[in-house]
Design a protein that fits this description.
single chain; mainly beta; 2 domains
Length: 281
Amino acid sequence: MSLLTPLLTLSALFIYPIKSAGRIALDSAQIGPRGLQHDRRWMVIDEAARPLTQRECPEMRLIAVTIKADGLEVCAPAMPPLAVPWQPVGHRRESDMWGQPLAGVSVSAEAAAWFSTYLGRPSDLIYMPEEEQRWQSEGRPYRSQLGFADGNPFHLVSEASVADLNLSLTQPVDVDVFRPNLVIGGGSAYQEDFWRLIQIGDLTFEVVESCARCSVVNVTAAGTRSAEPLRSMGRVRREGQAIIFGQHLVQHAPFSERTGHLRVGDTLEVLEAGETRNPVY
């Protein structure tokens, strides 16, 4: 029996093809074993082959990404547009993703020069090819294949929770601050903290982890650092050592069957809920 009350819907759907760069809003999206198609399949790395994100480079907030027929178009202030093909054929490039070795494909000399110029430091843009296998760590209760996302293939945020949080903030924020893939409309604030199993459209998802927020939420729309909203969130959304907001999901299906489509307007049903908030791993 569904625990649905009242109506919940998928109100927005986003991908972030380049890790820590701009989002793309979609009406519908295809899902594969790593999550939403094209989501975080590219990543900017530094001279030591480590990820560059808005934590170190808040100006990445200003990088806009658009889908074209033959790949991505990347734009940023005072920079010419950069074309990024769907399947780069550059040289293999090893990266160090917070201690986890990963292999990628360097997109092009032009892309490396573009990001190096914009970020003011030696940089490269790499792509994760299909043959590269990256999985959640053995310690996770639900293992999933990943692209360059931090730790889970899907991130969900509720409009009702954002609205409630804004009551505690001196400077209200929009939902995009939290960089979700899935935005849920309807229902009550923070009910997603307790969801265990949900269905969106025809697809079922395990709700596996509360999202511990980092300093990326403090990056302003102008691409600068701030102390808010994380400082204020610490007073109302602290769980142990973490400040939590939003939930991480994996598809509830065998690895070989993690496919399907999501569409804005899909109904969400809560199939299982718990009495305690989801943990942070």
